[in-house]
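Late entry, evening session. Most of the bench is empty. Finally got around to the prediction I had been postponing all week. Sequence below, unchanged from the version circulated by S.P.
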Amino acid sequence: MTKLPLEKLERLIRTQVTLATKLRLAPQSRAHKETVGRWAANPQSSYLAQFHADEEEGEANGGAH
């Protein structure tokens, strides 16, 4: 394997990032601006957090799920 000079490697990485964005391969390119705003304004809890909340609620109600 050949070693690339740092400047050339940096240029290749920048090109890759630019192409990923232009081709909508980057996560920020896939989401619509308004949708991202809604997600930030109303964050959803993760599945695991919801699972634990349901378990705690079940224990508070006498162990019934």
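Two things to note before I forget:
Residues 11 and 17 are 10 Å apart (CA to CA).
DSSP finds four helices and no strands in the chain.
Will write this up properly tomorrow.
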